[in-house]
Structures are given as structure tokens and as C-alpha cells.
Amino acid sequence: MIRNYIKTAWRNLIRNKGFAMINLMGLTIGMACTMLILLWIRDEINYDKFHEHYDDIHTVIANRDFKNRIFTDYNMVLPLAGALEDTDPQIRHAVVTTQGYDLTLRYNDVVLQKSSYTVSEHFFDVFTWTFIKGNPATAIADPSSIVLTQAATKAIFGDEDPIGKAITVVEENRELTVTAVVADPPGNSSFQFDLIRPFNYSDEDVRQMMNNWNGSSWRLYIQSVPGADMQQIDKTINAVKKQHDPHDAGSTYFTFPMSKWRLHSEFKDGKNVGGMVTYVRLFGIISAIILLIACMNFMNLSTARSEKRSKEVGIRKTLGSGKLSLALQFFCESTILVLAAFLLAVMAVYVLLPAFNTLVGKDLSLDVGQPYFWIGTFAIVFLTGIMAGSYPALYLSSFNPVKVLKGTFLAGSNAAMQRNFLVVVQFVISIMLISATVIVYQQIQHVKNRDMGYEADNLIMATGTDNTDKNFAVIKQELIESRLVQAVTRSSSPITQVWWKSGAPDWNGKPADLSLIVSGIRADVDFTKTMGIALLQGHDFTGMPSDSASILLNRAAIEAMNLENPIGMEMRFGEEKYEVIGVTENIIMESPYQPVDPMLTFYNPDNTGVISLRLNEGVPPQQALPFIESVFKKYNPAYPFVYQFADEEFDNKFLTEQLISKVTNIFAGLAIFLCCIGLAGLAAFTIEKRFKEIGIRKVLGATVQQVLFLISRQFLKLVLLSFAIAAPISWWLMHNWLTQYTYHIEISVWVFVAVGLLVLLLALAMVCLNTLRAALTNPVNSLRDE
Fold this sequence. Notes:
Blueprint: H1 2-15, H2 17-45, E1 57-65, E2 70-73, H3 80-87, E3 91-97, E4 101-107, E5 110-119, H4 123-126, E6 131-133, E7 145-149, H5 150-157, E8 166-169, E9 174-182, E10 195-198, H6 204-209, E11 219-224, H7 230-244, E12 251-257, E13 266-268, E14 271-274, H8 277-304, H9 306-318, H10 323-360, H11 371-396, H12 401-406, H13 412-448, E15 459-463, H14 466-470, H15 472-481, E16 485-491, E17 501-503, E18 517-523, H16 527-531, E19 535-538, E20 550-554, H17 555-561, E21 570-573, E22 576-584, E23 599-603, E24 610-615, H18 621-635, E25 643-645, H19 646-651, H20 655-689, H21 691-699, H22 704-738, H23 749-776, H24 779-783
Parallel strand pairs: 5-10, 7-9, 18-23, 20-22
Antiparallel strand pairs: 1-2, 1-11, 1-12, 3-11, 4-5, 4-8, 6-9, 7-10, 8-9, 13-14, 15-24, 15-25, 16-24, 17-18, 19-22, 20-23, 21-22
Helix pairs in contact: 1-10, 2-8, 2-10, 2-20, 3-7, 8-11, 8-13, 8-20, 10-11, 13-20, 13-22, 13-23, 20-23, 22-23
């Protein structure tokens, strides 16, 4: 019986090649898109899950309460980890790490800069890494040890065995011994590094910080015992911190589980407001929508063919076929199509994965040997088969055989109404997706065009070292004398990032209840000139001895502190006193979507790790960079020349939004394409059904234009109805999305008008191309058999 169903289904599909090809194309596109998006979603939700103690790992965070906002801070004090391990038995291990940073390594003639972490002793007990060589229990037991990844080992040693070999850390002129090699961190790991090394507790600076309960510069992770009371651990953390630092009254400490690090990492005013989980849900909805549109096409085209298959159903019922057997027959047809589409979709995914990986910045793969693949395969095929085949099977199998064979059966207005409903739903979804992509693009461009407060074009940021600090004056002189470089300065952080935050200083007349969080940066002379920052009052640093206690305030600081005449005022940080010598325009160093924080720029040419250079107007970077590199190599030969362009670093702040925009653009385009091929197929069947009617109309004098209008009118009504439904829903959804940003566009009605016209023209083109063939056919040919 099943064999007969399959054989009959296959013959029907072969007999109706046009119907089969349109559905096969739609289902293939829908399933391929779904698989690509599900691979991306799977990678996101599996972030960090390879760690053995995933459920018990937490990071410690502080909400620091200032009057202008609550700042969520991941930076902790160094001695807190040891104190927690000694205090709470629910904490199995507490680990401290630095932020990720770059180190320059030298081995023989090889000099490379690699990303690194410095970690405390239980790092490999808490986090699970695959050891290729070495023992995790002893890998970082010695302060002079270093653990490399496979990629770093290959780059430094080639095919040599690295264990026991010494590498020189150029910045410290110190040798470290390779004790282990680990596999490269997976792409969906929160830790991305080339090397790991332990804290050197014999170092004087480290010893001082181990007794410092005020300087928060480290990340703290804890591994709790299974089933631990995390609220009690939070209380312990707050009690221990405030016992050693009673002045830390404005901070509230809490644990944040590893399961939320990736998808729920965004905090606003001290509250967790989501993060990547929003985009995971969005892509999940888009994948379902794409597949749903493909299934709707199948249902539409199947019911459109109902009149052609009604006699087949009538004869089968007369010969004894029941409704169930007929439904199974039609389910077989849909299942064959779905299986064929699935095989084509898998091949398409294999072909498209490299390009998709480049687009989303991942290393996704289709692992056919994994159980999840076959579970996912069964789910996609089953659900698609049910969605695509259920309605046509139940509808076609319900025909009355008496009416069909008497010739009194009509497909009826109900079938047409259902087809029209599906067309409207498809176009509503497509219009919403296209409108959303346009608005997201406009929002990104709006924020990109926001005045940054500095000139990012022709601004280069290079990594500084001890050698460049010692030779800074001569480096600056040679660069400027070359006429390639206009200005040079140095600072404690890049102009695109904030590395230091603190409570606001004291000043005479400061309100007792005023508490602000401020950003800070240390800088040298020519800071505003090099960065292109406008001075609103006063002057920049001059390098004179009096500058050693000078600061610049930005406009946001003046407004937050409510200062009328700030020039000459004294600002105090404890016993340190500074004189305000200038007021600058606000500069965007953090999120371009948020207001600029009050910021203080201190004159301090020491301890500055970033050198910024502004090229002369009209000098191409490719012309200037070789000379700049030669100057740096001349005075800093032990280090590679590492630099970034400020405008490119600023663009990196939009990576997530740009990714969402690009991916949504692609899938919105595919959605409208699926709608169009479905509409084309539906138009073709409608025209086939009305072929003789068109011939008669032409005999009676109808023009080609009149025929085109006749057929197009019913479809264009559906598109206009779709637009009327989609436009207000799209506006509401995107308005809610935009409200999360302080700086956002106002949605223009012309966005929806333009999208509506685009979809209307596409639909018109699809219908007219199919109608034109019938309109241009000689009526003699269409009426010959009458």
C-alpha cells in the first residue's frame, strides 16, 4: 500500500513539473535558511557549555550607585578571591584574572604579539580546557610558567616540541618556560587567548595590590559547590568586601552565572535588560517565518490545482478509496517534495556555510555524525511536511464524488478566500521584514553621523612601550618633520575606549548629596590638537611644569557639576589637587547610542600606553605608514609596530547592529523572493484556469492592457491589503525597538510608502510576466477545441 502511494505520488509530481519545481525551490530555500539560522542559534546558546563546571561557575559583578546612574562594574579587587575561599564553604574555588591584553613574545628570531591572560592558581580547576601536552594540575604552579594554545605554539615553534623551552616576554625582559599546550579556545568561548600565565606573587606590584582593597582592576570568578545558595554567597561577598573597605558603601556585589554571560550580558541602570538573547529570538522567528512562507506557497499552489485534481478524487472515492487513504496519498506527495527539498537544502548549506561564517564571524559546521543533526533533521522534515501537506491533503480528500463526476463541483469562494488569506499573510511578513531592515539601517547611519566630538579621519593609534616613552620627543619630532604627520600625542587609553572610571572629585561649593561617576584619561601636550577636539574655554596642556596638576573637563562634566566659571577651579581627589585649565566639547569614547559621561582629562605624560598620530591633510595612509613604522622600529626595535585607525575602531561599536542588519536584509530579500515565486505560480494556475476566457475576451475586442489589468487587479488588491496591515504593525514594533536607544531616528511614513511601492512593483512584475503569455496568445489557439 505504501509503495503504491509513493509510486502514484511520484507520477503526479513528474506529470506536473512546473508545480513540483516551484514548490521544490521554495521549500529548499526555506529549509536552507532555517538550517543556517539554527546553526547560528545553536552556537550562541551553547556558549561556554564545554566547561565541565558550567552550571556552577559565576562571575562577580558590582552595581556602583552614583546619583547620575548606576554603573555595573566587572572589575574587582585582587585580594577578594582568597578572602572568599577562606570564608564561605559553598565556594569551592575563587579565581582572579586580568582583562585580556597583548604580550610581545620572542623566541630566537621569531617576534610575535599574542593575546594573554594572567590568572590565579585555580584557573584550570574552574575552567575546562583540552590539554594537548602538559598537566593542568601543575601547568601554572610556577610563576615563570606559560601555557600556549596550539595555534600560538605552531606560530612560535613550528614543529618543535615546546615543552620546557623558554620564551622571552619583551615588555618585561623576562623568560617564561612553556609547561603545557592547550587546544585553541572554541569560537563560542568567553575566553579568547593565545597564552595563559600565572600571577607572580613575589613581584612587588602584585604584593602591594594583594593588600589593596580599593583598586578594582581584575575579573573575579567563583566555582560554587553544586546546589549552593547563591543569595547567601552574594551576602558573603558584600560582607567580606565591606569589612575590608568600609568606604565602599555605594556598591552592591552579586554573582552572575555563566549561563547568562553571552545572552544576558546587558545591564542598564543596574538592571539586567537582556543582550544577545534578543537577536537569538529574532533570528529564530525569522527562520520560522521563512519556512512558513515556503509552506504557504505549497498550500496555495496545491489548493489552486484542486479543480484539476477533483475528478481524480471523485473517481478514487467511487472506486472505494476512503478519506484517510486519499489524505495519505497527498501526504506522500508533500513528503517526497519535502525530502527532496531537504537533500537540496543540505547541499546548499554546505556550499553557503563559508560565506555565512564570514558574514556572522563564526566557524559553524554541519556535523552529520552528531545526534543533534538527525534530531533536527527529523524535526524540520516532519514539521515542514505537516505544515505544507496537511491542509492540501485534508482539503483535496474532502471533495464530494457525486458533485465532481456530475460536473457540478466548484472549488468555491472558500478555497479562493483561503488562498487569498495565505497570500496576504506572506506579504504582510515580507513588508514587515523589509521595513525593519530599512529602519535598522537608518538608525545605524543616524548614530554613525552623530558628532563624535573628535575627528576620526586620518587618526592613527599605535601601541606604546617603555622605549617609545623614553624616545617620545625624538619620535614626535621626526614624524612631524617628515611633513606626513601633523600632530602627535600620547594618552593612557585610545580615544575610542574608556579604561578608567571613578567617583567625581571634590570642589568648593560641591553639593553634599551630589554623587557622580566620571570617566578619565591621562594625556600629553597636543591632545586636543591631535584628536581634533574643540576647546570651548581655556587652553590645552602646554608641557610646562604647572601642567602637572592640570585637568580638562568636558561639557557633560560642567553640566553635571553645575559649574558656571570652571576655569581656575580646584578639583580634589583625596590629597591630590588639580586646576581646571580648559573645557572641551563632549567626545564619544564608549557607546555611541548613549549620552556622554562627565570626563576628566589629566595632564600626565607618564604611564601612557597609546600614541596617537594625525596625518596631514591629503596624505594617503598607505604612503605614510611605511615611514611611521620605520621611525617606530628605529627607536623600538624589539616590538612589532601595532596600530589601528580610529575610524575603523569607532565602526566596531556597530558590529552587532550591522550583523543584524545584514542578516535581516538577506532573509527579508529571500522572504519577498519566496512570496514572488509563490505569486507567480498562483498567477500561472489562475491564468491556465481562465485561458479560454481570455481568448473569448480578445475575440470580443479586449486589448492586451485590458487583459493584464483584469488578471493583475485581484492580486494587487491583496498586496495593498497586506501593506495596510503590515505598515502599522511594523511602525509599532520598530518604534518600541528604537526606544531602547537615547539617540534614535523618528520613523518616517515614507519608509513604508517606499517599501509598499517596491513590493507592489515586484508583485505586478510577477503577475504581468505570467499574464503576458496568455494575453499575447492567438485566441484561435485557445478556443480551437471548443
